[in-house]
Structures are given as C-alpha cells and as structure tokens.
Amino acid sequence: SGAYAQWQGDKVPAPQMLKLNVALAEELGLDADALAGEAGALVFTGMRAPTGAAPLAMAYAGHQFGGFSPQLGDGRALLLGELIDRFGRRRDLHLKGSGRTPFSRGGDGKAALGPVLREYLIGEAMHALGIPTTRALAAVTTGEKIHRETGAKDGAVLARIASSHLRVGSFQFFAARGDTEMLQKLADYAIARHDPDLVGREGRYLSFLKRVAERQASLVAQWVNIGFVHGVMNTDNMTISGETIDYGPCAFLDSYSPKASFSSIDQQGRYAYGNQPNMAAWNLARLAECLLGLINADDDKAIAEATAVINNFPTLYQAAWLTGVRQKLGLLQDKEGDLALANGFLMTMQGQNVDYTQAFRALAEAVLGNTSPLRALYDDPSKELDGWLAAYFARIGEEAQTPQGRAAEMNATNPLYIPRNHKVEEALQAAEAGDMAPFEALLKVLQTPFTEQPNAESYSLA
C-alpha cells in the first residue's frame, strides 16, 4: 500500500491474440487453449481483469541517463497480479502498453507492435541463452493506430512474466520523499520476496544490499560474456531480482568493440557495451543511498558499511565474468593468468572487425586443429593473434581433456545463433506488414542457440 495506484487498462477497439507463449503458459499452470482466443486477448490488453485480480500501476522513481526523476512509475503498464507456477515460484504477470495511468506524464500509455515483438523476441532469446530475464507470455494487437514520430503504427500490448518488478527506482521513490517508514516496508517486502532467509535477521538490510550486488554482478557478467548491450541501464531498469528487464534499444554485438552503443539517445556512451559493469555499480550505489538509514542508525557507520559493498562490486563482477569466460575458452580449471589470457583474446579482436559470437565458435574449431575459420574473421590476423594462440594452446595443454570434448563443451557455452540486428529488424518489419513468418522462423532458431540447425546458416551471419 502506498507504492501503487489501483488501475485498469484502456478499452481498445479490436483486441486479438497475435502470439501466445504456450510453453510458458503451461509452466505457469494456465489454460493455454482458453487464453489463445478472445478471453486471452481481453485479459492481456487489460480490458478484463482475471478472476480475483486487482490490477495496479506501480510507483517508482529513477535516474535516467544520469538525471533524477522523482516520479516515473508504470506510465503505460499494469501489474495484473501474481501467480505461483508449477515449480512453486512466485511470478508477476505484467502488461506493457495497456494505456494511460496516473504515472503517464503526458504519454499516451500505448505500445506499438514493433517494440512489443522486439521485447518478446529478445527476452525469449535471453532465456534460451540461460540469462535471467523477464519473459513474454503474449503479444496482443489492439486494432488501433499509435502515433509516433515515424508515423502511425499498429497498437499492441505485451504480457510479460518476472519474478518481480521491484527496481532500484522503487526504493528511490520513497527515499526522494524522505519516507523512511515506506522504505522499510518496501525493503522488508523485497527481502521476503527475494531473500526470505534474511527475514528478521539482524543486519538484514546490509545483507540484502550484498545479495542485490551479487545478482547484478552475475547478470551483467553474463551480458558481457554473451555480447549483449542493454542500452538503457537507468535505475528504473535495474531489478532487485537480478533479471534483465525492459528491452528498448538493446542489441547483440556484431564486431567486437567496448564502445558499442545502440541507443540514439546515448550520445556519450554512458551505457556502451564495455561500460555496463561500471553503470551497474553506479546504480547499486543509488540503492545503497536509499538504504543507509536502515543499514545503521549511525550515519558514518552506515556509509562505511554500504561503501564497502559498492567497492567490492568490481571484484564480484570480475569473478563472475572470469567464471563465464573460462567456460567460453574451454578452460576446465582455475589458474593464475587466465584473466590476462581472456583479456588478451579480446585485445586481438579490437579494431579488427571480428565478429564476437563467431570468434568463440571458431576458437572451438581451432581447438580441433583448424585455425583458418578464426583467422578469416580478422581484417589482419597479425602476430598478436599468433602469439595469443600459442599461449592459449599451451594453457589448454595443461589440462587432461580431449580436443573433441573441449570443443563440444565450448560449443555448449558459446551460441551459434543470437538475435542479429538485421534479422530482428527484418522480422519486425515483416510483422508490421502483416507477415509473422520471419518472426516465427527467427524465434524458432533462437530457442536452440547452441545447436546447428538445418537451413539456418543466414541466422549465424552478421
């Protein structure tokens, strides 16, 4: 209470189910057949609340590209309610594009078909890659036109699932108002939801901050290892659960570059690929500021304890990243020098137009004795690559593993298929023109990203 406004979705002229995630519906214990028709379209546009549900728009604040907005909130979204899935997990069912709310700040509260299908596609791809993420349950068209700078677009609503929609910005909302009572209520709720073993424990708020730091370090390390650029790491887009949320101007790397950025707004590269760990730490510091009064009644002690958590974030991140990159390189044991070896491989790619995803698949071929596919990815496969390969072969030679076994493990970690930017845009443009076939074909390929599929070579190419 006090963290939301009770609300309902707008009425739309012609709600129609476009895409239902049947497997996810079944995982949630829902009747996929019933949801596939008119009833599902009405629920997933927000026009009809499910039995027993009391939809609401959540309040939160946030730093957006460094500037603080004390009130953001669900300006075009509704939390329909919570479900307990077949595995006993509590999941939020949330709509995006369901109309204006008290937090709309002058917006129309609507979503266009293209961005809805983008979030569906990228979220499901991330899930298949094993990265914590919100997931799409359904995409529903509304039968109305949404007016944007690029013209009139077909309206749509996304129904998505998350372990919760609590964000750093949720805490900032009450901190900005100096409402310590609500901050404590929210923190206790978040702990009960995501870290129930901490409930009632002394020092639980500092422990909670540490848990969020661990989850975010793990998440961002997975992003970086897979070549994912979120694009809008505002504090209202950073979850307490450690799930990826809000796929706006996101993309996967083609050519490796730490400076890669895909947001037209982000002219300074604040959320560029290589800066994501720094921004996660910055966002975490904003959460720490909100929790200071709960961590310790002594301001100096609270600041010291919270600062220690923030200062430890780079260590957490590096450990998570190195664990992941060892798997990508096919290294079975932890050895001193692995960090330099991993960074050395990335350095060979820099400025060489090397496709990041293909490079790791080609490295598995090199393990099998064929370095030609890897060399072919470089503009100039120079002495730097030769020197690195010599060091790499010496390193893997220290471990008792067959080349075939190592290559197979590498290919089970390094995807062959990612949502290539041009393939995503091709699918979205076709869908906007009424043809869902390219979307369905791309989605099918992305659901098994590590295994070579027949007639799918174009999906692996930049």
What summary fits the major beta sheet?
A: 6 strands, antiparallel
Order of helices and strands: EEHHHEEEEEEHEEHHHEEHHHHHHHHH
How far is the first residue's CA from the last residue's CA?
49 Å
**Continuous helix count:** 16
What's the helix and strand layout?
Elements lengths: L3 E3 L9 E5 L1 H6 L4 H4 L2 H8 L10 E3 L3 E3 L2 E3 L7 E8 L5 E7 L14 E2 H16 L6 E14 L2 E12 L5 H8 L4 H15 L9 H23 L1 E2 L21 E2 L23 H20 L3 H31 L8 H12 L6 H12 L4 H4 L7 H14 L6 H9 L9 H12 L4 H10 L16
Antiparallel strand pairs: 1-3, 2-9, 4-5, 6-7, 7-10, 8-10, 9-10, 11-12
Give a short summary of the structure.
The protein has helices at 22-27, 32-35, 38-45, 113-128, 168-175, 180-194, 204-226, 276-295, 299-329, 338-349, 356-367, 372-375, 383-396, 403-411, 421-432, 437-446; strands at 4-6, 16-20, 56-58, 62-64, 67-69, 77-84, 90-96, 111-112, 135-148, 151-162, 228-229, 251-252. It is of the alpha+beta class. It starts with a strand and ends in a 16-residue tail after the last helix.
Please characterize this protein's 3D structure:
It is a single chain. With 462 residues, the chain is an alpha+beta fold. It has helices spanning 22-27, 32-35, 38-45, 113-128, 168-175, 180-194, 204-226, 276-295, 299-329, 338-349, 356-367, 372-375, 383-396, 403-411, 421-432, 437-446, and strands at 4-6, 16-20, 56-58, 62-64, 67-69, 77-84, 90-96, 111-112, 135-148, 151-162, 228-229, 251-252. Strands 2, 6, 7, 8, 9 and 10 form a six-stranded antiparallel beta sheet that branches. A hairpin with a 5-residue loop joins strand 6 (77-84) and strand 7 (90-96).
